[in-house]
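Project outcomes to date are best conveyed with an example. Our students and postdoctoral researchers have been running inverse folding experiments weekly, and each run begins with a structure described purely in tokens. The record below, which covers 140 residues, was selected by the lab manager from last quarter's runs and is presented without edits.
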């Protein structure tokens, strides 16, 4: 049986990096044991959740520090990342474009020779009398 000291060591390791695999390896227990403790021990589960959050926050702090060092060293990709995520002036512009293309299949009698959307609209206007009223299905 594993004692409370081992659980405490595991929680300490979780606080460092927020990674179950890493913490279990450092303490010398199987991940299955960790997950069994979560199921069986509500107090441990509460502390583990808090330790994981702290560990992930610590890891993010370390990553931000490393990123800041790269920016200081004038790493172009790091500078682009920081500016693109922190300044509206440098955020990538996103444009939504929709292209509609109609292709006729040889022998397609429905197209009437239409080659693009403009031709289809003209064809529809010419055949307006054959179209069913709105909301009704076309005749078979």
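After processing, the design step wrote out the following sequence:
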């Amino acid at each position: 049986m594993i004692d409370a000291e081992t659980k405490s060591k595991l929680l300490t390791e979780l606080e460092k990096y927020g990674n179950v695999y890493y913490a279990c390896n450092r303490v010398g227990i199987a991940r299955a044991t960790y997950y069994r403790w979560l199921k069986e021990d509500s107090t441990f589960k509460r502390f583990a959740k808090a330790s994981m959050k702290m560990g992930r926050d610590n890891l993010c702090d370390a990553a931000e520090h490393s990123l800041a060092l790269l920016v200081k060293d004038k790493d172009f990709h790091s500078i682009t990342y920081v500016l693109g995520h922190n300044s509206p002036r440098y955020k990538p512009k996103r444009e939504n474009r929709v292209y509609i293309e109609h292709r006729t299949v040889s022998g397609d009698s429905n197209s009437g020779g239409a080659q693009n959307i403009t031709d289809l609209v003209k064809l529809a206007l010419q055949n307006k009398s054959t179209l069913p009223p709105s909301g009704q299905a076309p005749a078979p």
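The two ends are 76 Å apart (CA to CA). The chain has six helices and no strands. The training component of this project remains on track.
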